[in-house]
Amino acid sequence: MQPSNADALPVVDNRTRVWYNPNQNDAWFMAISELLNVITVFAILLPAAAMVREKERGTIEQLIVSPLTPFQVMAPKVLAMTGVILAATALSLGAVLVGVFGVPFRGSLLLFFAATTLYVVALSGLGLYIATITRNMAQASMLSILVLAPMIFLSGAWTPPEAMPTVARWLMVISPLYYYIDVAYGVILKGAGLDVLGPSFAGIIVIGSVVVGLGLWRFKRQFD
């Protein structure tokens, strides 16, 4: 073939475009991932610590004999810890992620904090359940670590789901952090809305309902 004829042939111009992190800055992904992991740790540990301290001081029996339901005893602790975590999340998001690492926040701030609230309440039930089967802070801390480790490993925060074995990908559906990561990355980096993230919100709500119900059942049974 003559060179002149070869130049006239169509040419494929292969270009790779990164939509949500065009600079391929790892700090964007790692900063968000670490924030979500810290939220997970505190959402479990703080309610567990609050309830265990009541047991260590002997004041939990006074709450039980009071005219309060188990839900009324647990709800103030969950709401207080949720408020603290949301305030710390707002500070970290504005001062560290956006201010220091320059992470762009493209979605709805209200949607992100709605998901964070649901997620923290869901894990608070798990923390309270841990508090009902432990006697002191040392036991609660050790048991929380045993729960946190598989939850983080199965969330996709450190290892992409595509790189995991098939069994691990099946088990990811029971990790609430898996759904929360999908929501957080979708809102912050992609600007996705509830129409896209609806299934992930549903996953957080379903798992949270089961965990909170289990915590209430265990708390009530402990003193029956």
Write out key terms for the chains shown.
mainly alpha; 224 residues; elongated
Mean pLDDT: 83
Task: Please provide the count of β strands.
Answer: 0
The chain-level structural class is mainly alpha
Morphology: elongated
- Give me the oligomer status: single chain
C-alpha Rg (nearest Å): 22 Å
Low-confidence stretches: none
Written account of the structure:
The chain has 224 residues and is an all-alpha fold. The chain is 73% helix and 0% strand. The chain contains 9 helices and no strands. Helix 8 runs antiparallel to helix 9. The model has no long low-confidence stretch (mean pLDDT 83).
How are the SSEs placed, and which strands pair?
Layout: H1 3-7, H2 26-57, H3 60-65, H4 70-98, H5 109-132, H6 137-153, H7 166-171, H8 176-190, H9 194-222
Please give a quick description of this structure.
The chain has 224 residues and is an all-alpha fold. The chain is 73% helix and 0% strand.
